[in-house]
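Quick one: structure for this chain?
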Amino acid sequence: MRGIHTELNWSGANFKWKTLPDTFHGFDRITVQTYLAQGVTAKNCSVEVLLTNVAGGSLGEAHNYKTGATINDKVEWNQAFAGCNSHGFNLGANASAKEQATTDVHAFVR
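Got it. Here's what it folds into:
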């Protein structure tokens, strides 16, 4: 199964993926690190949707990227997403990651 970044690069997009260690959602704008117990996250989800048919009213191809299985209909979609959502995630500042991300974006745009 191709990753979405590979798909974007094959289509001609100049796409880069980078993971910054010890970085949480909102790392570039939230000033205090906190745990949001009621927050919903899909971090355990293994569904990948390729937006190939947006004009036609559908999302396009959907796959379970861990198994490579194609998601063919609404029943399979619901089954695939049943285990995705869980509660609780970290939010928080990471000044060095913010600085690195800003530097990387500026370099990429140049």
